Amino acid sequence: MLYGLFIASCGIAIGSALMAITRLNASHALIYLVITLLSLAVIFFLLGAPFAAALQIVIYAGAIVVLFLFVVMMLNLGRRSVERERQWLLPGIWVIPSILAGALFVILGIALIGVENQAVIDGEMIGPRRVGAALVGPYVLAVELAGVLLLAGLVGAYHLGRRYLDERRER
Length: 171
Known about the structure:
single chain; mainly alpha; Four Helix Bundle (Hemerythrin (Met), subunit A)
């Protein structure tokens, strides 16, 4: 049964990732990206890594997606964006993401009921101490480079948005 939950979570991750790639609207793509990241957190949990699942939710589905949403909001200013926002509130747009997210919550609930104090799918339990030691040990350079890359992306998005607003004011 747990393998079925794992396969279902993998299917949701793949499906929502494909939907995120194929969406024309950046905000819709971010909604599917959140579902993809949540399904990956469920997969981590099913593999016996609850701490990695929590990090996946807090860091990626939380902080990184908020950063992406901030950039999207900053770049989509103007009268046309107001009209787009009205269309976002239509109920039909939220049907597929809601179904996928609901399926993930059902899978996670079933997994939590069936879990005891051991790894679910023959995985090794990794605690916070080992994750922290890896982040400040051999992977400290990669963690610092990721932080610099995110900062560079934020600065670039700010300048692109600023240039866009300056061009609109000149017209």
